[in-house]
Design brief:
Rossmann fold; 246 residues; 2 domains; 29% helix; alpha/beta
Length: 246
């Protein structure tokens, strides 16, 4: 019997876990695709391609040429463009698509969240008075905060940002999660953080900063996930494997 061939659009811990399961299943073949935004991505257990497809047309062509039978969108919850392209390309190629994503964080007792729709609203939520701001959003979108130069920013990234994107006063630190709760508390104390800005990416790997802000009584500006079109969605690796075997 011919093995089903899956394309996993990666960039998340869920994608890595799914790749490991696919590689161990004799019924399945697959490839994982990464956007290429980090120079040293974490290794996966499937053959890996890096870079864009050339929009919807290029992705649809790839699906046909590579004889893909199933597509799993396991990108970061904020990777809106590739997710939209995946939906459109699968419609063109008449292929099944499943979105595998982590559930968003939900405010708990003691949290002081200011929930906003996008970075522009996050900037407004910081207010006019100067504050020490922990930007825990990665390097994508940091330029949006240049319009509020009165604040003193702390930006944590994996890859170096473009200097032209940085706000006027911005300390850049490097790190890749997961981070321990005690380390996050120490960081925020040592850097005199007054407010945290983060995306609601969900999952356990980055949750320690939310717990740290709660423990320290800090406000958290929480940027909501972009609205997605209707697509079959799961939070379960087992459900994704069942989809691929169907």
């Amino acid at each position: 019997m011919e093995r089903r061939r899956a394309l996993v659009l990666g960039g998340s811990s869920e994608a890595r876990a799914l790749a490991t399961r696919i590689a161990a299943d004799p019924r399945l073949d697959g490839v994982i695709s990464l956007a290429g935004r980090t120079s040293a991505p974490i290794a996966h257990d499937l053959p890996t391609r890096v870079g864009g497809f050339g929009g919807v047309e290029g992705l649809a062509r790839y699906l046909v040429e590579e004889r893909i039978s199933h597509v799993v969108d396991a990108t970061h919850p904020f990777a809106a463009r590739i997710s939209a392209n995946a939906r459109a390309a699968c419609a063109v190629a008449n292929l099944p698509l499943l979105v595998l994503t982590r559930p968003p964080w939900i405010s708990a007792q003691g949290d002081r969240w200011i929930e906003v729709d996008d970075n522009a609203a996050a900037v407004s939520a910081l207010g006019a008075a100067p504050r020490r701001v922990f930007l825990a959003i990665g390097r994508q979108g940091v330029a949006d905060f240049r319009v509020a130069p009165q604040h003193d920013y702390l930006l944590r990234v994996i890859e170096p940002p473009q200097a032209a994107d940085l706000p006027h006063s911005c300390e850049v630190i490097f790190g890749r999660g997961p981070f321990a709760l005690e380390d996050e508390i120490a960081l925020m104390r040592d850097r005199r953080v007054e407010i945290v800005v983060t995306k609601n990416s969900g999952g356990a790997l980055a949750y320690a900063k939310i717990e740290a802000a709660r423990a320290l009584g800090l406000d958290v500006v929480m940027v909501a996930r972009p609205a997605g079109a209707d697509a079959a969605t799961t939070h379960s690796i087992d459900a994704a494997m069942a989809f691929l075997a169907s």
